[in-house]
Amino acid sequence: MRWGEHAYLLAMKPAPFTYHAPASLDEALGLLAAHGEEARPLAGGQSLVPMMNMRIARPEHLVDLNGVAELSFLREEADAVVVGALVRHAEIERSALLRRVAALLPCVAETIGHYAIRTRGTIGGSLALADPAAQWPLLAMLLDAQLTSARPGGTRTLAARDFFIDIFTTALEPGELLVSASFPRLAPDEGWGYRRFARRHGDFAIVAAAATLALDGAGRIERLRLALGGVGGTPVVLDALASAQQGRLPGPDIWEEVAGSAARAIDPSGDIHASAALRRELAAVLTRSALGDALARTGAHR
Amino acid sequence: MSKSLLRLRVNGETHEVLAEPRKLLSDVLREDLHLTGTHVGCEHGVCGACTVLVDGRPARSCLIFAVQMARHEVTTIEVVAQSGRLAHLQQALHETHGLQCGFCTPGIIMTFEAYLADNPAPSEAQIREVLSGNLCRCTGYQNIVRAVLAAAARRRAEGPA
Question: Would you call B121 an interface residue with chain A, using a CB distance cutoff of 8 Å?
Fold first, then answer.
């Protein structure tokens, strides 16, 4: 064994790369297009840099987005809130705007990793990484966020359900950069719930459940949304199950029934973190709890 | 890959370092600037030992390339004690036996230097949530939590210094 060949087994240091620090989005897109598959955009670096340190990722060109101010914004629209790809989890956590129009985003941001991870990690990085157990892919799927990407000379917008293809796989093409995510506002009385199970605080969830609930004037279910993370290659949205609850009176019995149906509707696979049976069980338990939280947060109960 | 001249601001001073772009901030701090108070544990962002402040906010220096810091202010453990006097959290860690081997301690202090500025009166649960990002294999964390509570109280009474 030659020392040089296997040095990476002993030291966690990235392979050499050419560093680019574009000052504008156009410049960044030009660099990404010019270098294609040899380039990786660097946002918060909380997933890419560990992969580079372990040499799982070895980009020839690193395009650092941290100086691209155009990617760092929060914008309120009539029925949505648009979050720039470079917005840090900690900024989402502290955003008064988001607390007002889509409180589940900042509240769920608090559960990402650790304090010193959230100060760097970005929503765009998390969405583009597409870990099916991560918070932002789950919420994007739950709310069917509109994800806008750019390349030189054009942009396109994909619904989250078309953006996420499989584990760590999105519809983004080489040279294409995710620039923003548009989340629909929640109605003023709409409740939400997010529950996760992880072995250690700050780990990626083994399974996570997210729900929103709006009630009509009579206190019956007007609109229910429900999605699960960690039970497939992408987060799973349970549309049919959720819409079938319309008109019912919400409460523990219904939640128990929905939780059981959710666990039967998914097809998780087992891995070193959890068996398929455990994931199914967690899906039921977390769904029931998330639905309970959503009901407790609806206007009628606030 | 060739080395280039990197400029970075650390602890209020401007430094120029000849290094490759792939050199981690943690390694530049330790090897080029000889600021060895920043400890390197896991080198993939899990243990928290290498936590420094970037523009006043805690960050893992093993997940940042030094070349990225051209326009940012880095603060390390070396300047936390001022004029020979320990900061409140350092003093409290000493008094409550909040460290044994001390390897994780600089990362914990940098994390809470920033956190206590944001949240001067944290609950024990909040302290534990923040502390979850820093691994300590000696103490079992109980005395670190006590130290942060004590430091927060002193900070409120006497100011940040």
Answer: no
| Percentage of chain B modeled with pLDDT above 90 | 95
Domains defined along chain B, listed by start: 4-79 (3.10.20.30), 88-158 (1.10.150.120)
User: A-contacting residues of B 44-63, CB under 8 Å?
Assistant: 44-45, 48, 51, 54, 57-60, 62-63
Q: How far apart are CA A63 and CA A61, in angstroms?
A: 6
Considering the domain A74-184, what is its CATH architecture? 2-Layer Sandwich (3.30)
CATH placement of domain A191-297: 3.30.390.50
Angle between helices B124-131 and B105-118 (to 10 degrees): 130
CB atoms within 10 A of CB A265: 15
Predicted pLDDT at A299 = 81
- Position A10 scores a pLDDT of 56
Checking if the pLDDT of A6 tops 70, the result is: no
CB-based contacts of A76, cutoff 8 Å, min separation 6: A82, A97, A101
CB contact under 8 A, B45 and A117: yes
Pairing mode of beta strands A18-20, A61-64: parallel
pTM of the predicted model over 0.90: yes
ipTM score here? 0.94
Residue ranges of the domains in chain A?
Answer: 74-184, 191-297
H/E stretch holding A226 reads strand A221-229
Contacts of A53 in chain B (CB under 8 A): 24, 43-44, 62-63
The pair of structure tokens assigned to A50 is 């560990």
Exposure string of A1-12, with b = 16+ CB inside 10 Å and e = fewer, is eeeeeeeeeeeb
Q: What confidence score (pLDDT) does residue A11 get?
A: 66
pLDDT tens column, A69-100: 999 999 999 999 999 999 999 999 999 999 99
Cβ pair B111:A116 closer than 8 A: yes
Section A1-19 average pLDDT: 68
